[in-house]
Amino acid sequence: MVPTEINFGIWDYVIVVLVMLISASIGVYYRFTGGRQKTMQEYLLADKNMSIIPVAVSLMASFMSAVTLLGVSSENYTFGFQFIVINISYGIFTPVAAYVYLPIFFRLQLTSAYEYLELRFGKTARITASLAYTFQMTLYMGIVVYAPALAMEALTGISRVAAVLSMGLVCTFYSTIGGMKAVLITDIFQSALMFVSVYSVIFGALSEKSFAEIWRIAEQGGRTDLLNFDIDPTVRHSWFTLIIGGGITFLSLYGVNQVQVQRYLTIKDLKGAQKALWLNWPILTALSLSTSFAGLCIYSKYFDCDPVKSGYISTSDQLMPYFVIDTMGKIPGLSGLFVAGIFSAALSTVSSALNSLAAVTMEDYYKPLYRCITGHEISSKSASFQAKLVALLYGLVCVGVTFLAENLGGVLQAALTIFGIIGGPLLGLFSLGMFSLTANEGGAVSGVTLGCALASWMAFGPKPPAPVLPTSIAGCNLTTLAEESFFNMDVNATDSSQYLWVYRVSYLYNGVAGLLTTFLAGFLISWVIRLACGKTINQENYDSRLFIPMIAKKVEKININKTNLKINEPTAQVKQ
User: What does the pLDDT look like over 286-324, one tens digit per residue?
Assistant: First the structure.
């Protein structure tokens, strides 16, 4: 009933190696074609001539990584189908990202999204935000590579070290030499493999049980409840936590995150970028829903013999690859195709992160420092070469961070937690700049610092165990009755009231807390600073391009009044 040995044959290895070679060859192709990545615009922004479909697919692939494929299926197996509600938030917040935040970045045409913060507030705000982003993405890359390393270990017996090194080096290679064009094109190829991986699980389950039977088993196991409308913020997943918390996470990624903003700017006009973002939504939702259903498919096979509880695998994040080897391991090449899809999901996300980190490092750190030391700008050709070295360096750092990822718990919750503690406050910082004239640099930097501190405190404090749904090993043919009795115990009776309330709040609200704290504290501190200095907004010099339309109109009126005042001053002096 349960596999006792690993079936990963020669054809499986051939397919995995072939996928890695194809990804690497795309990087080589774009290194020696077109402008050969000789300018920063071509290397980081693909010469701003990309079409809508590749960018839309890349937007999805940058967000949906191996963490999603393994983590979401594990989430639905362990906690139930409630997580699919998060897809509603994607539809709600897509127009917000497309029509509120995206137009501002398009008007400015900045390579680094964080340059906006210098234009709006000052250099300190820009550096604070870009450093926070660099920390966030470096940690996230570690988790993204760690997830497929788990799959590789479960399916092939190859150590995590070997899996991490092979993925990290291949990804670093094609991202470094091929630039943004290579990243976008490989994302299309890798996205297709991601869908293949998920549907191999679904079709494998449907070959043994009907859809109705899969749903019936999940229903009996308490995994089909979708109607949790509890407003209590300590409830891990409800409609409120998933739509509000998930929506803020989505908006922090698709509204102001450098990875996605950089992709938008590879399209020549705003309407095209908005269409790409809208097209991303159904692609993203299709993969998310499919992966969620795959979790129920896995449960339908192991509802009476849980592989984690019975000790066949070490973590629930290995459930999906374990299911593949157990169900389809005897079919030559199929396990390899699944692993290739998991690898592709990791490669697409990490390559996106490497390219964006190179952009941020060059634009926010290196170029200003070079200008300060030498007194002149760096040449485009030299900057392009150095950006490639930076991408290479981040790739090596990514490999190192991966070995720390196993200490962060389940991959899905770990990834969303990292997005929350940094992404929420950064979204608050950009929103503070775009939606308010009162905000100034002192208030903004103080606000984002407090926002990150609160979100981190909520995320990393001692938390009660999550209330998992019960699993069984009654069908595992255990050796003794005592052993069966031990394994059938679901240890989940911890009294959560002994934990501080803030630690019991759903992890999805970390980003919401960071956003609100950054915005409200930033606004209030800015108001106090203005009051203490006696400086009003009418005395400021604002650029209307930095604000949402309603605020921009107010800025234009202020600027017109200033102009009229200057024109009338000489006349008034003559009359005197």
Answer: 999 999 999 999 999 999 999 988 888 877 878 888 888
Residue-wise pLDDT tens digits, 47-89: 788 899 999 998 888 877 777 788 889 889 999 999 999 999 9
- CATH class of domain segment(s) 41-424: mainly alpha
Judged by phi (left if over 0) then psi (alpha if -120 to 50, else beta), residue 542 lies in beta
Domain coordinates in residue numbering, the chain: 41-424, 543-576
The vertex-326 CA angle with 324 and 332, nearest 5°, equals 65
3-state helix, strand, coil in the chain (%, to 5): 75, 0, 25
Q: What does the alpha-carbon distance between residue 405 and residue 402 come to, in Å, rounded to a whole number?
A: 5
Q: Tokens 């934990």: give the residue.
A: 499
pLDDT tens-digit readout, 5-33: 566 778 888 888 888 888 878 877 777 77
Q: Is the dihedral of CA 400, 406, 409, 413 positive or negative?
A: positive
Contact 4, 325 (CB under 8 A): no
Is the model more confident about 7 or about 110?
110
Task: Tell me: pLDDT of 100 over 90.
Answer: yes
Nearest CA among 407, 465, 440 for reference residue 533 = 440
Q: Measuring CA to CA, which residue among 218, 256, 257, 225 is closest to residue 242?
A: 225
Of 159, 172, 142, the C-alpha closest to 403 is 142
List own/partner pairs for 133-137 with CB under 8 A and 24 or more apart. Answer: 133/257, 133/258, 133/360, 133/422, 133/426, 134/357, 134/360, 134/361, 135/422, 136/418, 136/419, 136/422, 136/423, 137/258, 137/259, 137/353, 137/356, 137/357
Which one, of 87, 384, 46, lies nearest residue 186 by Cα? 46
pTM of the model: 0.88
Alpha-carbon 470 to chain mean position: 30
Beta-carbon neighbour count of residue 229 at 10 Å?
Answer: 8
Dihedral, CA of residue 312, residue 190, residue 178 and residue 183, to nearest 10: -100
Q: Residue 130 pLDDT more than 90? A: yes
